[in-house]
Fold this protein.
Amino acid sequence: MKENEIRPKQIFDEYLRLCKEDIVKYFSRCSFEHIDCPACENRGSFKFEKDGFFYFLCDKCLTLYVNPRPLKKYFDEYYIDSESTKYWATTFYKETEEARREKLWKHKAALIHEKILKYGDKDYKIVDIGAGYGTFCEEIFKITKDRPIAIEPSVHLCNVIKEKGFEVINHFLEDMDKTMLSDEKKCFTSFELFEHLHDPGFFLKSLKSIMNSGDIFMFTTLSYMGADIQAMQEKSKSVSPPHHLNFFNPKSIVTLLEKSGFEVLETTTPGKLDVDIMNNNKEKVIDNFWKNFIEYSDENEKQEMQDFLVKTKLSSHMMIVARSK
Ligand SMILES: [Zn+2]
């Protein structure tokens, strides 16, 4: 899989351009609050600035996070109304759906199914939080033959998912209560959502309140220890405010989950793109080791390096399986 196949450069760059305009519109006059490390509550220190947002790094657990953080209401307005959000929900998802289905979601659905059988059983009801365009729901349904439930706050995306034949709960997870779900055993999933959360601790507390003991939570998010992010730091396209606010890593995410009443069953970084992303963004790679590696190595060596990053949990795409205690 290549970066361009799931994030065509032209579409992604247009999205990033709209984001910059929206930052001025929604965040240039907002109020902020100070926060400590979202994983271990240590007071971090300033690392870099990007597009007017300050990123702090916790020197104890190496979590990167936006601080000070604009109050939640500004993000709510942004996610409901902004042009970049609309572009993402319509143009980006629509234009890339088939490519992403083939390159990303089919594989992801198979992987999730494998993990459910490993840590639960085939009867777990899947509930996908932030289901987006519903492509994961479609692909997992093809495997399990059981319709997952989607949770999706955007009305536009809710309609897309409904048209695909799935039950959708039109809410933010943080506003839900347990009565909104049936009582069967569940596996909650969320993909590329955790890095967006205004308050990850509160999200986990809310999630736990709608889970039964023994239910599973599987999710993917970005790791700050990932090679491409380490090599490019603030120049990385993944460091993209106002969207990506939290960059945990395979160790600090365990701290947060355990503190929130979860037992962590597995942390991996099954990413495929770190080396390809660096290759496509050579001018942004500020680390010498990686800069030279990209120029020096052939395709096979690059693939071996990517495999090594996965093995050592140093890819930026991280996946976690946890169980509610
Ligand atoms: Zn920390």
Residues 37, 39-40, 42, 58, 60-61, 63, 252 surround zinc ion (CB under 6 Å). The longest helix spans residues 83-119.
